[in-house]
Design brief:
This protein is mainly beta. It folds into three domains: 69 residues, Beta Barrel (Thrombin, subunit H), CATH 2.40.10; 84 residues, Trypsin-like serine proteases (Thrombin, subunit H), CATH 2.40.10.10; 90 residues, PDZ domain (Pdz3 Domain, Roll), CATH 2.30.42.10. The protein is 15% helix and 39% strand. The chain contains five helices and 18 strands. It has a six-stranded antiparallel β-barrel. A six-stranded antiparallel beta barrel has the order 7-8-9-12-11-10. Strands 13, 14, 15, 16, 17 and 18 form a six-stranded antiparallel sheet that branches. The longest helix has 11 residues. It is globular, with a radius of gyration of 20 Å.
């Protein structure tokens, strides 16, 4: 099968995702994951409320957000239509050097196709321990949420962002499958910013905001607290915190600083939902 034929197959399973509210500017791409009308895209592509999903033939449908995981940057939407063309998924390992094909809707161009090469598969510095499909391929705003596929048109990931050096990062297909089966990971409910501390502690995560009713609020964390680590491991990036949350077994012990930073404090945070999902 030639690149042109693969491109046409991928365009049929790639959609344009827009917020139905004209005052919301979120827009990007998505993948028709199954014939039941499940759409997978990035969490940062979708805003609040109802979205419009435009198919390859120009038809448009409203789609509600069914699930969202900001830590993995994934969201699930559902079309009212069924029997639509859906993605073919790669189940075998992806190897460096393989051809990579991306389809999306960058900068207003519908169904734009670009090609490149898989650079690596695995974690990348500064993004925690989560794996990525890393590809030397040109992407632009609007490609987010669209498919990254191999030479046979099998989806190997969901295009998400560009890293340093122009390497495109895609959420691996296996991570998407786990998200669809198990739902979103637990969330602490905070927005953080990296701050530099003394040489001994090196860095921490300053809490900038806390969601109402979140595990962080229930544990009495405050805006201005600095999260510094857990279980002997120090936080140097927000991804370190996300890894700690993901590995916690229902309860997460965090060390933090408050006020004059003179004394290291400790709090145990309950993460509702984690035990239920693991038992399922």
């Amino acid at each position: 099968m030639g690149i042109g034929e693969v491109g046409e197959l991928l365009r049929r399973i790639t959609v344009h995702v827009r917020n139905a509210n004209p005052r919301q500017q979120s827009a990007g791409s998505g993948v028709i994951w199954d014939s039941a009308g499940t759409i997978v895209t990035n969490a940062h592509v979708v805003g609040e409320g109802t979205h419009l999903v435009e198919l390859w033939d120009g038809s448009s449908f409203p789609a509600e957000i069914h699930s969202r995981d900001d830590s993995r940057d994934l969201a699930k939407l559902k079309l009212p239509a069924t029997g639509v063309s859906s993605a073919s998924l790669r189940t075998s390992p992806v190897k460096p050097g393989e051809l990579a094909i991306a389809v999306g809707n960058p900068l207003g161009f519908t169904g734009a196709l670009t090609t490149g090469v898989v650079h690596a598969v695995g974690p990348i510095s500064g993004f925690g321990r989560r794996p990525w499909v890393q590809a030397a391929i040109r992407l632009a705003p609007g490609n987010s949420g669209g498919p990254l596929a191999d030479a046979a048109g099998q989806v190997i990931g969901i295009n998400t962002m560009l890293a340093s050096g122009g390497i495109a990062l895609a959420v691996p297909t296996a991570t998407v499958v786990e998200f669809l089966q198990s739902g979103p990971r637990p969330r602490l409910g905070v927005t953080v910013r990296i701050v530099r501390l003394d040489r001994r502690r090196s860095a921490g995560l300053l809490i900038m905001s806390i969601e109402n009713g979140s595990p962080a609020e229930q544990a009495s964390l405050l805006i201005g607290d600095i999260l510094i680590g857990t279980l002997g491991s120090r936080f140097t990036t927000a991804a370190d915190l996300a890894d700690a949350i993901d590995e916690a077994d229902g309860r997460l012990k965090i060390h933090f600083l408050r006020g004059d930073n003179a004394r290291e404090r400790e709090v145990v945070i309950s993460l509702p939902g984690r035990l239920t999902r693991e038992a399922a």
